Amino acid sequence: MRGEHTKMADVKVYDMSGNEISAITLDDAVFGVEPNRELMHAAVVNYLANQRQGTQSTLTRTEVRGGGKKPWRQKGTGRARHGSTRSPIWRHGGVALAPKPRSYRYSLNKKVRRIAMKSALSAKVAASEMLVLDGLKMDEYKTKNVVKMLGALNVDRKALIVLDAVDKKIIKSAANIPGIKTTQVNTLCVYDILNHDKLIVVKDAVAKIEEVYA
After folding, report:
1. Do the beta carbons of residue 204 and residue 54 sit within 8 Å?
2. To 5 degrees, how large is the angle CA 84–CA 90–CA 95?
3. Alpha-carbon distance 189 to 46, whole Å?
4. Short-list 212, 174, 3, CA closest to 200
5. Residues 6+ apart with CB under 8 A from 213
6. Spatial contact of 170 and 161, defined as CB atoms under 8 Å apart
7. What angle do CA 22, 27, 31 make, to 5 degrees?
8. What does the H/E/C string look like for 7-47?
9. How far apart are CA 157 and CA 95, in angstroms?
10. Measuring CA to CA, how many Å separate 126 from each of 24, 50, 61, 114, 118?
11. Are the beta carbons of 29 and 214 closer than 8 angstroms?
């Protein structure tokens, strides 16, 4: 049954130089469940819907300028009856059933969100696409330092770096690297996890994730 626990997983822990320094046993209640693809899909669709601005707007026949005068008399011209040149069937007329600003936001219940998150995390562990860092600290704003770290970890594709707390030096240093995104435990979402090839999680962030979702 989807959502049940599988065997506990041991994941290697690396330093910023790519050296394996230890291993960590992940909580199978969070990182060892059988992924529920339907709920992961629901979470992704929900995220994308909530990102929509909903600002599209066009003019109806009552909003288009002009058209106040009847174009010709009702009878006797041999032409069809018209009351305004701003009817949707006229050139430069209004739009029938015009789109107006609206919100596309909707929410998923807490249980669905939790199962989807644990499914996404477990899928990354099962595919060996999750790396754990012992720590991630920088003394200065240097993009090349993040690039060097990623190279040492053999990460050459899209990667999501999960921090345990906001660190402006790391966030800004990684901001200019194509395909690399940083986030924190409290802003982690299913879409970002699945949209990146590698999940790089700081060890302290792993503990927070387990605390929240176990």
Report:
1. no
2. 95
3. 11
4. 174
5. 29, 30, 114, 117, 118, 121
6. yes
7. 100
8. CCCEEEEECCCCCEEEEEECCHHHHCECCCHHHHHHHHHHH
9. 45
10. 15, 29, 57, 18, 12
11. yes
Q: Is the dihedral of CA 198, 199, 202, 206 positive or negative?
A: negative
Q: Which of 29, 25, 30, 28 is nearest to 13 (CA)?
A: 25
* Cβ within 8 Å of residue 199, ≥6 positions away: 121, 124, 129, 130, 131, 159, 160, 162, 193
Contact (CB, 8 A) for 44 and 190 = yes
| pLDDT, tens digit, 9 for 90 and up, residues 82-114 | 999 999 999 999 999 999 999 999 999 999 999
- For residue 150, what are the contacts with CB-CB under 8 A and spacing of at least 6? 156, 159, 177, 180
CA separation, residue 208 to residues 35, 62, 105, 212 (Å): 21, 55, 28, 6
Is there a contact between 120 and 194 (Cβ–Cβ < 8 Å)? yes
Note the pLDDT of residue 157: 86
This prediction has a pTM of 0.81
DSSP code at position 155? -
Q: Is 202 exposed, middle or buried (0-12, 13-18, 19+ CB in 10 A)?
A: buried
